[in-house]
């Protein structure tokens, strides 16, 4: 399947004994009864899997790819850049222009740099304490790894690396971005092949290995958390359903509506930077 791209948002809800719980937007605290019920399920679960989307990284200053322009947040990426400029066909036909536009996109997304926020840190804490088995992410910003998460499956790749389109060798991205800024466009590998960001471009399928790992994790999950994703981008959007079909409790945590709201066991509009630290606190309690 070809990927589309990530979108953003954030939500978490819950109910005891498998009952659906709907909650309004607003702050989430460790005394929230719904959160307490969810924490109990997670504490009893053998395997918990999380899927994150762009909404987890928006509080770090990284704009979402889609959505409505907002007065109090960054404009969505595809409001200011043309997705066609980042299609595989563009890379093949005009690698110099592709890299020029990619530099502009990188500046839009990361500016002077982005740091992990409280949501990234909470997920890393859940893993460290044995409450999170696998972290699946649609994001390419590398902030989960920067926060200390170890068991991360980057479904769409990572901007922290570049890869040679000829030999497949990968290397750290920052020195290559500097070469591109200095005029080497496109930058090339030692073998003479053209380098590219190690991310899934429009018109390319997700790497089989990454999505196979994601599906296997979803099938094994007792609890599946979908955080900061509108769950519209396939095939990643299929993962909550895969988990549910295997008997998992499915949790949706997103600021806006998602494609899975009506089927989730727990569903509430909430900011991930509030909901996830509150979940950690509830587990501590």
UniProtKB/TrEMBL annotation:
Zn(2+) binds at residues 164, 167, 189, 191. Residues 7-31 have a biased composition (Low complexity). InterPro entries: DHS-like_NAD/FAD-binding_dom, NAD-dep_sirtuin_deacylases, Sirtuin, Sirtuin_cat_small_dom_sf, Ssirtuin_cat_dom. It comes from the Archaea. Residues 1-31 are annotated as: Disordered. Keywords: Metal-binding, NAD, Transferase, Zinc. GO terms for molecular function: histone deacetylase activity, NAD-dependent; metal ion binding; NAD+ binding. The active site is at 156 (proton acceptor). Residues 28-285 form the Deacetylase sirtuin-type domain. PANTHER family: NAD-DEPENDENT PROTEIN DEACYLASE, NAD-DEPENDENT PROTEIN DEACYLASE SIRTUIN-5, MITOCHONDRIAL-RELATED. NCBIfam families: PRK00481.1-3. This is NAD-dependent protein deacylase. It comes from Halosimplex rubrum.
